Amino acid sequence: MSSTHLIDDSPLTKYHKRLIAACSGGPFLDGFLLSIIGVALTGANADLHLNAATLGIAGAVSLIGLFVGSLVFGPITDRIGRRVMYTADLLVMIAASVACLWIQAGWQLIALRFVVGLAVGADYPIATSLLTEWMPKKHRGSTIGLLSVVWLVGAIVAYFVGFAFTSAFGNGSWRWMLASGAVFGAIVMLLRMGAHESPRWLIIRGRIEEARRDISSVLGREVTTEEITDMVTQEEPQRRARLTDLLRGMNLRRILFCGLTWMCFAIPQFALFTYGPIILSHLGFGEDTAGATLGQIVLNLGFLLGSFPGMKWVESRGRRPLILGSFLFGALALLPLGIWPDAPGWFVMTFFFLFALINGAGNILVFIYPNELFPTQLRASAVGLATAVSRIGAAVGTYLVPVSLIGLGTGPTMLIGAGLTFLGFVISIFWAEETRNRNLTAAAQAPADGTPASVSHARGKAAGKLAL
Fold it and tell me: What are the coiled-coil residue ranges (predicted)?
């Protein structure tokens, strides 16, 4: 029996479903913790008397922490295992959230938001790698894409929580908003108890019998020595990989592709999540904080609703046409907001909602591509590095949003967002690969002709496939 029958072609078991729920807890917390600041900043600004620069840093510093966390903890996860890191990062998230109750100065807010970002950055390579390495290939794309959907759910819950606190207790309740993440963190901790280590990671570390026992437990049958030997043959690397391998040749191109396209998705999205109520107020939607926050909830629902057809298309049409269409039509949706910034509220919400739907569909790829394009021994490091590349731009972009709104105006700020989205389309034309229906080992290998897999064939049909 081929090794693909053990994992890549295995049925979806109860354990797989439990693991999906457990791994989804991380992205949920990520979305919640990174988005709740968007509502809390209004009250924090009033209580702590933040200037424009400090306000920008407070909004962007979590992304800086995310950059550091993903860059540092991705390689550590590849070295010591996925399961060891699986709950440690949650403890840090919970502690930093609770500590927000005692914030008395702007620097304390910035410091704690940095720690939250650090833990979020650690979780990206941990949870996504573990889930990817257990999932059957026919469910892999939609399942990994689900993590992005759950991220959006966390963001939406954050705005509902923020709206509830603001409506009931006013803007002064911002400390409790930030601390509320600890409750969700404790729930996720419980979900993650009892998880197995990645069998692919165990194999490349020589822990063959442990991998065999775990796979047998998950599949509900005894895996034979022949089956596990076949898997070892395919999984075991020819030589020990080094982190520097990610910085040369095909791996470097893939890192840049994953990081830069993730950045092009993330900058407009994080701008909306972090400064959504402020942007909507500038555009004339919502006369008070609660009204603008309610408008933000509607936009977040757009991101979520767009994800569901994206999860279907990523398996039925493929990764490449989905990313191309999302960037192209997303740029076209932002363009009218830049051209007509003084438009009526219904016009603003219509095109913002349309952009949210389109961005939500393509955004499911940000976890899929880096997990599929790299081998087991480098997967978490690659996800961490791609995350870091994306967050350099996202942090700078998010920091500059309030500066741009004040200095350039709302219209030019929207045009910049449209330009960044179109840049993602151009990058994807040249570098987007097709990994649909490929087993995990094959997807990480170099195509025979040295070009991105299926790109030459896809270019010939690009016009027909762009229509999502």
Answer: none
